[in-house]
Amino acid sequence: MTATPVLRVAGVTKWYHVPTALTSKFSSKTPGSLRALDGVDLQLNKGEILALVGESGSGKSTLAKILVGSTKPTSGELEYDGEHITGARHKDSSRRIQMVFQDPYSSLNPRMSVGDMLKELLLLHKIVRRREVRAESIRLLNMVGLEEDALDAYPSQFSGGQRQRIAIARAIAVRPDILIADEPVSALDVSVQATILELFTSLQRELGLSILFVAHNLAVVQHLSQRVAVMYLGRIVEVADTAEIFSNPRHPYTRALIDSIPRMSAESVNASFVLDGEPPSPFDVPSGCRFNPRCPYATDACRTTDPALESIAPGHLSACIRASELPILPLVPKANAVNQQGSL
Ligand SMILES: Nc1ncnc2c1ncn2[C@@H]1O[C@H](COP(=O)(O)OP(=O)(O)O)[C@@H](O)[C@H]1O
Ligand SMILES: [Mg+2]
């Protein structure tokens, strides 16, 4: 099956300019500019769930905001349904790409009942006629696993998981093609997380949605996504099908993320090394490969060559100059690990 891209970014950068006084302690090189995104290439295919995974601060939310149009990139290209998006978005293209946030409480108006909130959206975007609003609202609530009686309730009356369901109902109310979900389960109890992940799977299946699902933890997306993109310090460093990422990771950072999943470490096929707790600051991106200061496989070449994200097998991209050697490189002995104490 050939994949059809619905959303594509190429060479996207986002630099934040921060007052020099604040940056001087971080960097002497380019005071004032923080490279939140530093040349991102990625495509979301029609009908897939693509996971975007990386440590906190790697630029995931910045990329999510650029995709929904709430932040402008510093440079780079954005394509939606094969067309370049430049400048302000057409009202219809912003309707078709909806966002779900980590904290549903801050994204829901506490003074509006669920019914009023859905009604406002359905009428504003002319999704249904006024007399059909109630039936459509109930249909949306049922689709996210809530009952009709939620219509008259306010956000504060729900649990965290239920509030996330309401936020999802609101996002799908306007019949988008694409959902960008920015860590939508990170704030929820583990027992609730699984039920919300199932909801995303059923929405993908029933509505044919294309979903970019952001997470800081690979374990969350293992049974959810069809593909995984791994982000490190403002770049995508590996992309592959989910099963391939777990069984045949071709970037040392991806290996470290997999090995940081506790329940997998016993059967891990990867070199077990533990990452230093903090990634470098995006004020001062390391030269060469940006991962080299934390990488147990780094060679001299890695300290001078900034590797591009390149195809190493069909559908599998890696930004590591040693990608082809990784499966045969010996495991890193625990004693030589980068930092035994650190964790992700
Ligand atoms: N509005 C902003 N102004 C300045 N720096 C920002 C802003 N938003 C994000 N950043 C910085 O950009 C980097 C990436 O942040 P973010 O996209 O939120 O990462 P993630 O979602 O992966 O945790 C971080 O270093 C963060 O501090
Ligand atoms: Mg974030």
Q: Which helices and strands, and how do they pair?
A:
Elements: E1 5-17, H1 20-23, E2 33-45, E3 49-53, H2 60-68, E4 75-80, E5 83-84, H3 91-96, E6 97-100, H4 104-107, H5 114-124, H6 133-143, H7 160-173, E7 178-182, H8 190-207, E8 210-215, H9 218-221, E9 227-232, E10 235-241, H10 242-247, H11 252-259, H12 300-304, E11 310-313, E12 316-318
This protein binds adenosine-5'-diphosphate and magnesium ion.
What would your notes on this structure say?
The chain is globular, with a radius of gyration of 21 Å. With about 350 residues, it is an alpha/beta fold. The two termini are about 35 Å apart. It has helices spanning about 20-25, 60-70, 90-95, 105, 115-125, 135-145, 160-175, 190-205, 220, 240-245, 250-260, 300-305, and strands at about 5-15, 35-45, 50-55, 75-80, 85, 95-100, 180, 210-215, 225-230, 235-240, 310-315, 315-320. It has twelve helices and twelve strands. Helix content is about 30%, strand content about 20%. It has a single domain, classed as 3-Layer(aba) Sandwich (Rossmann fold). Residues about 265-270 and about 335-344 have low confidence and may be disordered. The strands form two sheets. Strands 6-7-8-3-9-10-12-11 form an eight-stranded mixed beta sheet, with helices on both faces. The protein binds adenosine-5'-diphosphate and magnesium ion (MG). Adenosine-5'-diphosphate binds near residues 16, 60, 62 and 282.
- What's the CATH C level? Alpha Beta
CATH superfamily: P-loop containing nucleotide triphosphate hydrolases
Mean pLDDT: 88
Order of helices and strands: EHEEHEEHEHHHHEHEHEEHHHEE
Taking strands numbered 1, 2, ... along the chain, how are they ordered across the largest sheet? 6-7-8-3-9-10-12-11
Please give the count of helices. Answer: 12
> What's the structural domain tally?
1
The main β sheet shows up as: 8 strands, mixed
Estimate the strand proportion. 15-25%
What Rg is obtained from the alpha carbons, in whole angstroms? Answer: 21 Å
Tell me the CATH architecture.
3-Layer(aba) Sandwich
Give the % helix.
Answer: 25-40%
Number of strands: 12
- Quaternary state of the chains: single chain
